[in-house]
Amino acid sequence: MSRKRIIAGNWKMNKTPSEAKALCETLIPLVGNDDVEVVFCVPAIDIVPVVEAVKGTNIGVGAENLYIEDSGAYTGEISADMILDAGAKYVIIGHSERREYFKEDDEFLNKKVKKAIEKGLVPILCCGESLEQREKGVTIDWIRLQIKSDLDGVSAADAKKVVIAYEPIWAIGTGKTATSDQAEEVCAAIRACLAEIYDQETADAIRIQYGGSMNASNAAELLSKPNIDGGLIGGASLKADFGQIVNA
Questions:
Q1: Would strands 230-233 and 163-166 be described as parallel, antiparallel, or unpaired?
Q2: Helices 180-197, 139-150: crossing angle, 10 deg rounding
Q3: 4-20 pLDDT per residue, tens
Q4: Does 95 qualify as catalytic in the annotation?
Q5: Which domain holds residue 109?
């Protein structure tokens, strides 16, 4: 099955609205590749200016988070309807920073995935292991638990709408990168897990990204692997290097 490549930038808590607009002006000419789905996932305050800045281009816009309710007394949160009305179509769910700093567990993330799908957003669902877990040899078991928990109760038809991002926690922002073989091993295990949950046709339809210090120099090798369909890019998404990754 031919899966369209998807390269998404996770800007994290970077760029004011004016800085975001300037960054878009820099990146737009560098990422004009119709063979690749390109997404900028930006802070909530930047969604509207970035949507305006990329209008008419091949770039989609995503949020970095959402809440499980549609509205109400949830100070500081952002709803799926707000994200959609602002013009974004994607949302990152379950990033290791949300899991660690904000104590989001798999039961809560499962509700987020279902809310995103219900509203028509494309969830970019993150999973990944710590260095300790990798050294103990439980990487695959841990990833399988995350995937099964986060997609619990999600139908095969809806699962096909999800993008999964494998991000080894020990490689996020550290400069360390899983080797292409290590990344492929886990992404292949994710696809095998999806086939167990659903069926092979569904598993083959779901796109799996690698994230964790993917950059201009290693992107081509990582993206050459059969189960790696794209990347979720952190630091490099804020630089011209992002264009080289998109075109790798």
A1: unpaired
A2: 40
A3: 999 999 999 999 999 99
A4: yes
A5: 5-246
Q: How many CB atoms lie within 10 A of CB 73?
A: 6
Point out the catalytic residue in the list 37, 64, 129, 167: 167
Please count the structural domains in the chain: 1
Residue 110: closest CA among 158, 161, 149:
149
Contacts with 144 (C-beta within 8 Å, 6 or more apart), sequence order: 189, 193
Cut 0.90: pTM above it: yes
Structure token digits, residue 113: 């995935």
Active site residue 167: yes
Q: Indicate which CATH number applies to the domain containing 37.
A: 3.20.20.70
pLDDT band of 1, cuts 50, 70, 90? low
Q: Which two tokens stand for residue 63?
A: 């949020």
Q: Let me know: does 108 contact 145? Beta carbons within 8 Å.
A: no
Residues 244, 219: Cα–Cα separation, whole Å: 8
Of 37, 64, 95, 129, the active-site residue reads: 95
